[in-house]
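Our consortium's second objective concerns turning raw sequence data into structural hypotheses that experimental partners can test. To show how far this objective has progressed, the report includes one record in full. It was chosen at random from the queue rather than selected for favorable results. The single chain below, 281 residues long, was entered without modification.
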Amino acid sequence: MTRPSLPQASLPLNRPEPKDFAQRIRAHALRMVHAAKASHIGGCLSMADILAVLYTRILRLDPAEPQAANRDRFVLSKGHTTAIMYATLAECGFFSLAELDTYCRDGSIFTGHVSHAVPGVEVSTGSLGHGLPIAIGMALAARSAGNGSRVFCLLSDGECDEGSNWEGILFAPHHKLDNLCVIVDFNKIQSFGSVAEVLNLDPFAEKWRAFGWHVEEIDGHDVDALERVLGGVPSPSGRPTVVIAHTVKGKGVSFMENKLEWHYRSPSDELLALALAEVGA
């Protein structure tokens, strides 16, 4: 299919390097979670490199025309990691960086689970297992419209415990939705323990292949690998793509890495300073 072109507008204006972008959004998320005494910083940090590549290299979006019919769609299914999603959109110009200071305050649209009231957010999520079925509907609609839009959906690994996801995983290849790409932030830790302990997903890649998906398995912090596989959508095989991105919970902050406690904990003043120093802020 020949894909209609999307205006090369301001996303991002200067096409920053993904590694630099990732460190900036990590720093924003750390400050936001600290100020709000909120949670989920570990999962924010694990997905930073994925968001950085998507929003600097892959997604065809324009903050000046956020509802353009032929835009690409991004669905954050792991909606509890909202701080870094808002930071990403602010860095891309959907709203000012100053608005991040209202995160989780009374009356703010920048809620603790991602909200479509925020410019650039396609759909509110947070109840795990909802994002992928919505993304599949978007991909089906885009194909019917023939506008060349692609749909990217980011799942957590623990979220793959949800049966609604597996119904969608069966549905998408049946309808040959090659304009759909799922990315799994496979950091191996969910809310109450390791994925292996709570509900083992192995053999994970083989399950997706058995359901008919084109599967890529990569280091989720390797920005070159991310750009290579995400830039391959739509899949030449005519099948939906899943990218199993092996990541580290709390990536970039040594005392948060691979620690379950940072699913819920917010950093103190002292730990915030240490964390910001480690991400180069």
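The partners drew two points from this record. The chain has a mean pLDDT of 94. The longest strand covers residues 180-186. Both points have been shared with the crystallography group to help prioritize constructs.
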